[in-house]
Amino acid sequence: MNEVVKVLTGEHENIKRAIEHTHRLFADILSGNAELNMMLERIDFFRNYADGYHHHKEEEVLFPEMIKRNEMLEYGVIHEMLQNHEDFREMLSELEDAVNDGDAEGAKKKFEVYAEALLEHIAVEDEEVFQIAETIMSEDELLTVLYRFEDCDRELGVDEKKEWEKKIG
Ligand SMILES: [Fe+2]
Ligand SMILES: [Fe+2]
User: Fold this and answer.
1) Nearest bound ligand to CA 5?
2) Taking the model in full, what pTM does it have?
3) Which residues lie at CB < 5 A from ion ligand 1?
4) pLDDT score of 157 more than 70
5) Ligand 2 centre and the CA of 103: distance in Å?
6) Cα 29 from Cα 143, distance rounded (Å)
7) What is the number of domains present in the chain?
8) Which residue from 31, 89, 114, 120 has the highest number of Cβ atoms inside 10 Å of its Cβ?
9) Residue 163 in contact with residue 48, Cβ under 8 Å?
10) C-alpha 124 – ligand 2 centre gap (Å)
11) In this predicted model, what pLDDT tens digit does every residue of 109-126 receive, in sequence order?
């Protein structure tokens, strides 16, 4: 597995762990063992880590580089992935609204829809999109992508990224 794919699948693993933890948090909230507003920190995680650190790399670096090498991708699977990212932002806002309204049942349902869609999205990237990237890019091109990923993390904060990973670990 190329380093570029390792970075992205590693972030996917952290996102999947956060999804599992959040399902457990909702179980605690509904049984009265946790406060609904604890969800706000999870929403921050999905916004800052999943969307900020992770989707940012795909949208600003990997996907444009893939489209440069195969224009057809822009209208196919990459279009679908970008649309999903947009939908996820919308879903998180709706989830946040439900939490702020104190609607625990509604928030749980919204989170379940979001989590399922995100897991599906991650599976398509892991099984399809990243393999296409490895096939259409040379080792050198992939190395350039890796350096640009490192720039992305530096811009957003390497220490903050580790903090997020620790929080959901
Ligand atoms: Fe994605
Ligand atoms: Fe992804």
Assistant:
1) 2
2) 0.96
3) 58, 81
4) yes
5) 29
6) 44
7) 1
8) 114
9) no
10) 9
11) 999 999 999 999 999 999
